[in-house]
Amino acid sequence: MKSKSPKALDALCAENNKIPGIIFRISYWTAEIYGFGRHIREYACYPKWLPLCINTDHGPGFRDTPLPSELSSSAPVQFYHAPSRVKSWPTFSGKACYCLFSPYVFFRRKAGIVQSAMAKGTIAFPAHTTSSIDDVSNIQHYIEQLKALPDVYQPVSICLHVSDICKGLHREFSDNGFEVFSAGTVQDERFAENFYQIIRNFKYATSNIGGGYLYYCVEMGLPFFLYGNEPNYINRGDQNIENGQYTSYKQHSAYQEMEALFSRPVLEITPAQVEFVGTGLGLRDGISRTAMSLILYGTLLKCIFSLRWLKYLASRMNSK
Q1: d(C-alpha 167, C-alpha 277), whole Å
Q2: Which of 158, 164, 175, 277 could serve as 169's disulfide partner, Cβ 3.0–4.6 Å?
Q3: CB 153 within 8 A of CB 121
């Protein structure tokens, strides 16, 4: 896959702001973004024209406890990639919680996507921001650190989240000679396909913070390592985390375990890293395809007969 020009990356911002299709809009958004909905439906043999009435984490992560938005969601069922997060789900919620087999890994294996025999260099995932969270760290310092990586990791290319492209970060990297990629917008059903077509061309992967890409890269065979100055996050409106400087992600034991395992440049994946990633992706604990199908149909019926869901639908439609 060729890197995108700055102008092509600029166009992603306009795509990201388009109103999504009706099914995306009436489903619970966490189960739809980054192409999740497409692959969850395929896993469960569930029609693409039916909404998903479940709440999910939107990728494998490093939290120990549920987010406020997850606890307050009207979805009748919660899903997490990691079994430890399922265990942390409070019984007082009155809702069931299950372990999700990674929709991305299901897609990759079904599509037969593997690392290219011609793979070379390193794909870097700079800490990404959102519309509510900014990174005010010195990006030029991070750029110089990437350039200083040993020859075995060169050349380094960049993969950016659409939020950072909308803030112009792609031009910082492009102006410094890096090839820049993006897997697309948050509502792009091809996101997983785009993502894997990017990373399969590299031997190694890195970031200055842990993220879902760590799991996906290691699962496919790319050694991953943390490297470079950490982001300096400032929250300007996300209700799930503290306002102002955002550092609480470092306090979670899952994040600390990840830091201990991936804290230095490596040339090979260790057994401990394989174990960590497999657990975090739900590869052993994720529910079966049959069980997922039964849950999706069951939650759909429950939502259809729920006045609360009708109010939810009305609010979703009115918000667009």
Answers
A1: 31
A2: 164
A3: yes
